[in-house]
Design a protein that fits this description.
four-stranded antiparallel sheet; 521 residues; Dipeptide-binding Protein, domain 3; seven-stranded mixed sheet
C-alpha cells in the first residue's frame, strides 16, 4: 500500500484498518440488536467498576493500562480508532501523506475548545508533540515518535505538518494512542508537575476529582465540539481491585458496567436476566511470564527454555479461562494481519524441560522468587504454574505485590520474575517495538537482539502490509526462541453491564470508549 498525497475525509492512504482483518465477531450476540436501533438518551450518571492501577491522568506520562480508560473521556487524540482498528478522523478531520512518506499534513477541526476555555489550534498540536519530543520532559511516549519525527510545523492556524526523518508507517496508529492525546498548554503551565492530577483536555467530559485508590469523577463538558455528545451528565469510576467484586457490584446495581471480568464468573452473570455479558472475539490480549534476561540467573537461555517447556498452557486455558481464549504462541493475537499462522511457540515437554534445566547448570533443581499480583485471578494462575513447574523441579517462592504497584515495579526493574499482560496495538510496531526493541520504552526485560532491532527498524519504514509481514514474522520467531517472555494464553475478555447500558462495542485494544454509551430510561 503506497503512501498517497490525496486528501480523505475518512482516510485510507495508510490507515490501520486497511492493514487488519475485519473483526466481524467483535460484538457478542447478547449486545447486538436493540441498542443499535435506538435513539441515544441524554442524562444520568454512568458508574464504572474500575481496575486500580492509575497513577497519573497526564497522557504524556501515562504508562498504566487503566489510565487510558479515563484519558479517552477527558482528552481527544489527533486521530481515532474504530471497532475494527481503522484509523479515523478525530481532532484531525483529514490528512495527507507525501509521496515519499516523509511529510504528513493534518487538517484540524475548527471551533474546538479546551475545558479551560482556550482554543485548540495547530500551535497547540505543535506544542504537544514538542513537549513529548523534548528530552527534558522525560515523556515515556518520546520513544514512539522520536525515531521518525524530526519536527512539527504550523502551516496555518488549522493545518499542521509532521516533518519525518524517514517514512514511518506506524505514525497514525501511534497518534491514536497516548502520543496523540492533546493536552491544554495553559493548564500544563498552570499546574506544572501536578497536571496529571488536574487534567484538562478537549474531550466530552471535564475532570472533577481524582481520589487515589478510590474514584475518579468526570462531568459533561457542555462546550464539547461533537454536537449532541456526550450523553451522560456524569461519569464516576469506582476503584475496585477484585474482578469478582466488580461483577457483583454490577449484579447488585452499585455500578452499571465492569470490564476485566473473570471467566469463572461468566456463567452466573449470563444467567442474570438483568445483565448483558459481552466477549471480545477474537482474543486481543495475552498473558506472559517475564524476567530480566540481561543479568543472572535469567540471562541463561537454557533455564528460560526449561521453564517455557515445563508449562502446560492447555491446562491453564481449561482451569483458569474455563476453556475460553486460546493457547498463546507469540506476540500477535488471532485476527491481526501480522499474525504468523505457522508460528509454533513453546509446547509442553516436561522431559525436555528437565534436560534443559540440567544443561542450564541446575541438575538438582532451581528455586527463585516470583512476584505475584495480590488478586484472586493472578494468585490462582501463580499457584497452577507453581504446581506445573514443581514437576520439573523448579520451585516458585511467591512474593505478593499490590496490583496498583505491580507494573511500576516491573518498569523500575525492582521485580525480576513475574507475570504480566498486554493488549494489542493498531499497528504491529506498537507492541513489537516498545517491548522487544532494545530502545523500546517498555522493554523491562533488558532484551537486546541486534537482528530483531534491524527487522523492526526495516518494517517501520515500509507502508505495504505484505512487505512488512515477513519481517515481523522473522522478528517474532527470534523473540519467541530467545524467550524474554514466556507466552501463556490469548485470554478471553468479558464486559458485564446493566441492560440499561446501550451502544457498547469492543475496540481490539480493550480500552473502553465509554464516551459513546448512554443509559436507557
Amino acid at each position: 500500500m503506497a503512501a498517497t498525497a490525496t486528501t480523505h475525509t475518512r482516510p485510507t492512504g495508510i490507515t490501520v484498518g486497511a492493514l487488519i482483518l475485519a473483526l466481524a465477531g467483535v460484538l457478542a450476540p447478547t449486545i447486538a440488536g436493540r441498542a443499535d436501533a435506538q435513539t441515544p438518551v441524554r442524562g444520568g450518571t454512568l458508574r464504572i467498576g474500575w481496575i486500580p492501577d492509575a497513577k497519573t491522568l497526564d497522557p504524556h506520562f501515562s504508562v498504566q493500562f487503566a489510565e487510558r480508560h479515563v484519558l479517552y473521556l477527558v482528552f481527544n487524540t489527533l486521530v481515532g480508532l474504530d471497532k475494527s482498528f481503522n484509523v479515523i478522523p478525530e481532532l484531525a478531520r483529514s490528512w495527507q501523506v507525501a509521496p515519499d512518506g516523509k511529510r504528513v499534513t493534518f487538517q484540524l477541526q475548527r471551533g474546538v475548545k479546551f475545558h479551560d476555555g482556550t482554543d485548540f489550534t495547530a500551535e497547540v498540536v505543535k506544542w504537544n508533540i514538542d513537549r513529548i519530543l523534548d528530552p527534558a520532559t522525560k515523556s515515556p511516549q518520546r520513544s514512539q515518535l522520536e525515531p521518525a519525527v524530526a519536527a512539527v510545523s504550523v502551516v496555518d492556524p488549522y493545518t499542521v505538518a509532521f516533518e519525518m526523518k524517514k517514512p514511518f508507517a506506524p505514525l497514525l496508529a501511534a497518534l491514536a494512542e497516548r502520543p496523540g492525546f492533546i493536552v491544554s498548554p495553559a493548564a500544563v503551565k498552570k499546574w506544572g508537575e501536578n497536571f496529571g492530577q488536574h487534567p484538562v483536555g478537549t474531550g466530552p467530559f471535564r475532570f472533577v476529582d481524582f481520589v487515589q485508590d478510590s474514584r475518579v469523577t468526570l462531568e459533561r463538558f457542555d462546550g464539547y465540539w461533537e454536537k449532541g455528545k456526550p450523553y451522560f451528565d456524569k461519569v464516576v469510576y469506582h476503584v475496585v481491585p477484585d474482578p469478582t467484586v466488580r461483577s457483583t457490584m454490577v449484579r447488585t446495581g452499585e455500578v452499571d458496567i465492569a470490564t476485566d471480568v473473570e471467566a469463572k464468573d461468566v456463567p452466573l452473570l449470563q444467567a442474570d436476566q438483568n445483565l448483558r455479558v459481552s466477549e471480545m472475539k477474537p482474543p486481543a490480549r495475552w498473558t506472559v511470564l517475564q524476567w530480566q534476561v540481561d543479568k543472572p540467573p535469567f540471562n541463561n537461555k537454557a533455564l528460560r527454555e526449561a521453564i517455557a517447556l515445563g508449562i502446560n498452557r492447555e491446562e491453564l486455558k481449561q482451569v483458569l479461562l474455563r476453556g475460553f481464549g486460546e493457547v498463546a504462541r507469540g506476540v500477535a493475537t488471532p485476527g491481526l494481519w501480522w499474525q504468523d499462522p505457522n508460528l509454533k511457540g513453546y509446547g509442553y515437554n516436561p522431559e525436555l524441560a528437565k534436560k534443559k534445566l540440567a544443561e542450564a547448570g541446575y541438575p538438582n533443581g532451581f528455586r527463585y522468587k516470583f512476584a505475584v499480583e495480590n488478586t484472586s485471578q493472578w494468585i490462582r494462575q501463580a499457584e497452577l504454574l507453581q504446581g506445573q513447574l514443581q514437576k520439573i523441579n523448579v520451585t516458585l517462592d511467591f512474593e505478593l505485590v499490590n496490583t496498583a504497584d505491580a507494573y511500576a515495579l516491573i518498569v523500575q526493574r525492582k521485580t525480576n520474575w513475574t507475570h504480566t499482560r498486554w493488549t494489542q496495538r493498531a499497528d504491529p510496531h506498537g507492541l513489537f517495538y516498545i517491548l522487544f526493541h532494545s530502545k523500546g520504552f517498555a522493554n523491562s526485560t533488558g532484551y537486546s537482539n541486534p537482528k530483531v532491532n534491524e527487522l523492526l527498524d526495516r518494517a517501520a519504514v515500509i507502508y505495504e502490509p505484505e512487505r512488512r509481514k515477513p519481517l515481523y514474522h522473522e522478528a517474532e520467531r527470534l523473540i519467541v526462541e530467545d524467550a524474554p517472555y514466556v507466552f501463556l494464553n490469548y485470554t478471553a475478555e468479558f464486559a458485564v453491564m446493566s441492560r440499561k447500558v446501550q451502544n457498547w462495542v469492543w475496540v481490539p485494544d480493550l480500552i473502553p470508549r465509554f464516551r459513546d454509551l448512554w443509559l436507557e430510561k
